[in-house]
Write a structure and sequence with these properties.
13 strands, globular, homodimer, eight-stranded parallel beta barrel, disordered C terminus
């Protein structure tokens, strides 16, 4: 299959509710099973049976307490709280599958690179090369307060992220030679010491003088996912990301983001196509357009305004309770959080958004669009989104947890498979990186900037 | 079954080699499969079939680089390096089993309590209450150097551990009321905000003002395991531990440790018997005593002196390469690391240990004894160890990885079961804590000091 194939990831959060607000009240919603191991094992089998590329778990190191200056609205709507540590279910999901990849979110602001690098290397071994890291810098002030470092300003967070990634890449790519493990009983040498190298990293944020604790894994570095579309986010992605998750409201906006990311990659000396772009969206599908629209209307009727605003205030850093729900927002400036308000007020929409408009929109699928219709309508629309924007595929959120995904698999996957836009059988490349870049590409592509760290950085100790 | 039942845990390390040195060369050793997920799944099934209480994973945040001032000898013998993050395999092992518990080692010196508390709560949910935490303060200087904080002195590490645990207990026991999750669709309330409380912790090492991110799990707090037998270690255990792993060389030494720990527990206002003590040891069993002795001799012939000294130097903080292997050690002072040298030189042994004696001893099973013999001999000896010392059971290490455990299960378990010293069927208490304290005790016992934190610490926000 050629590049016609869409890359497709389920997008989820190990919590009763993710992006949608109030929809946990839908009778088919399964979010309440978020801490049931069997739920995730069955989930993994289902998306593998449907030939997804993988699942992608968001996370938040804190919680939403900007709206009304309190966490109360966030708690009442289970706005990503309670939330599990997303790393913990991966091995169970991996043991039940062979092909799907696993993207896990972890923060460069609150994790030590030395420990985090080992965690990902462990999962890369255990999954046989099916792990990816969604690199985030964490926007929530609550995370900074509870994790002891305080919330860093936006620019500082990105500088720290760049150095954090540099440390991790050094540990993954250059500390242990490919042939370091010899297991030579005769000489009584398991690891050849001359083939393991201290990374001697001494930076602004991190000092890691020593060797890594882990042997080279199938992919070495996990697949690096990022999500930022701010100038600093694009700059970091150009240097380090292999795939970027975006959530444009329109195809035109998506195309602009794709172009900006690819331009950044090219400027970093990379093949622009080697930076994959995945659009986040939600699909509401039913046998006919009318039934799908009725389903969408039901969903909209369940949206919780306060739940949506709890999320939105957290994402933007702006307490939305200060605005009249029905007065259009214009020229509202954010304080360095995500630029979601400006996205709604300035781009593409052709209307002046009110807080209530925003709540109704993001209450379904966060800041990504909802595609509503029959299987054919949805498939047409998905093809249009990738073909017109140059994006590579989708990160598929669920407004009604589990059920939306199951409906997509039942109704849309067969249509996309028939059109040659999805696999019917997995190809031979079993690692996550090969799902993005094709069989044979288990390791960072040759033009990835981190490959410059690939040679041992120092002589053997 | 009464208290006659021994508590029995497999003791392991997710690495090619754990305590034994050079024995990875034994043809039956399976340590090289340490990063194979199926290996651990099969392992979990095997010990559950044998009615173990669980498995206990050691870990090291650093590596052994004290011997000869280098990590080379440690690498050559795979002395706990490469090593996996022990958290990562747990969910796969849990998905394949229903009863066994999982003890996981994590360091209070290098983990943020806010993040670590969520990790354990996640696993407590996913395993349905089968998780335990082996609390360590991390002795390795390499860990301090690579994890950015520097290695803290012994006393400082214990003060930090006590506060770290206090933060975790507050998050586990008192941030969320038992009935915080209401999932009331009519009122559109998933979590009742008035039932979630900030912990307002402001201490010397940690500031955690906010609420926990997780709902109450089956055990709330994981079962707290500790291993220290220094005065500070005993003091911490008396206040916080539910079970302590010790590695006495003789039954008399074990009895002294048991008595000291129970005395400490009593002084902390607890029932002394509520602090369980598990002795670490290795069993080498064969159909007859002669065959077992021959097996032991084979093991001894495979011990690597450098590999044993790499570990021992790391544990004690003393570079053992400065001593003649064949001259007895006397009056060697350690610098605040584990007191292993004094244990060998001053206690019970009735001989002056040389470095080579130590290597031959610890090269099999670290600082715990090896029990060698036929199934009956071994069973007699195990009964004697618990009956004469007052200890509660064992942490069973394997000199030849996997195979020693399989041999124990084949030969010794049936004998212990016949004598009523091990379960033939699990009882109804499915959590790990109930395995220690009996069915109905899923939560911290009433006399545990952390229960004083059980009431909400502050009014609702």
């Amino acid at each position: 299959m050629t590049d016609q194939r869409m890359r497709l990831f389920a997008f989820d959060f190990q919590a009763p509710a993710h992006l949608s607000a109030g929809l946990w009240r839908h009778p088919l919603d399964q979010g309440h099973r978020y801490n049931d191991l069997q739920y995730w094992v069955d989930y993994a089998k289902m998306i593998e049976e449907a030939r997804f590329d993988g699942v992608f778990f968001a996370d938040n190191s804190g919680y939403q307490d900007v709206y009304q200056g309190s966490v109360d609205a966030g708690l009442a709507d289970a706005a990503q709280i309670p939330a599990q540590d997303p790393f913990m279910v991966i091995s169970a999901m991996a043991a039940a599958t062979k092909h799907i990849g696993f993207g896990v979110t972890a923060s460069t602001s609150y994790e030590q690179p030395y420990a985090l690098a080992r965690r990902f290397a462990t999962l890369d071994h255990l999954t046989k090369g099916r792990i990816g890291w969604n690199v985030v810098t964490s926007y929530a002030g609550s995370a900074g307060r509870n994790l002891g470092t305080g919330a860093l300003p936006h620019s500082e967070r990105y500088a720290m992220a760049a150095e954090h990634l540099e440390v991790c890449f050094k540990l993954w790519e250059s500390s242990w030679d490919e042939d370091a493990i010899v297991r030579d009983a005769e000489r009584c040498v398991y690891v050849e010491p001359s083939r393991v190298h201290p990374i001697n990293h001494h930076g602004k944020y991190f000092d890691v003088p020593g060797i890594g604790q882990f042997a080279p894994s199938p992919q070495r570095s996990p697949v690096i996912f990022e999500a930022g579309t701010s100038p600093k986010g694009i700059a970091l992605a150009a240097q380090t990301a292999e795939a970027v998750f975006v959530n444009a409201v329109t195809i035109a906006a998506l195309k602009r983001q794709v172009d900006a990311l690819r331009k950044g990659a090219a400027e970093a000396g990379r093949d622009p196509r080697s930076l994959k772009v995945l659009q986040m969206l939600n699909v509401i599908v039913a046998p006919t357009d009318e039934e799908a629209q009725a389903k969408y209307d039901t969903y909209r009727s369940l949206v919780s305004y306060a739940g949506a605003m709890a999320r939105y205030s957290g994402w933007t850093g702006v307490d939305m309770s200060q605005f009249d729900p029905d007065v259009p927002l214009k020229n509202v400036k954010t304080d360095g959080g995500q630029s979601t308000i400006s996205l709604f007020t300035e781009v593409d929409s052709g209307k002046d958004w009110t807080p209530r408009d925003i709540a109704e929109f993001i209450g379904i699928a966060g800041t990504g669009p909802s595609i509503v219709g029959s299987p054919t309508t949805v498939a047409d629309e998905l093809c249009r989104w990738v073909d017109e924007s140059g994006a590579d595929g989708f990160n598929l959120a669920s407004a009604v947890k589990y059920q939306d995904l199951a409906d997509f698999i039942e109704h849309v996957v067969p249509v996309l498979q028939k059109r040659g836009r999805m696999w019917t059988e997995y190809d031979e490349g079993s690692t996550l990186r090969e799902k993005l870049h094709g069989a044979g590409n288990a390791r960072l592509l040759a033009d990835h900037p981190a490959r410059r760290l690939g040679a041992p950085l120092v002589d053997a100790p």
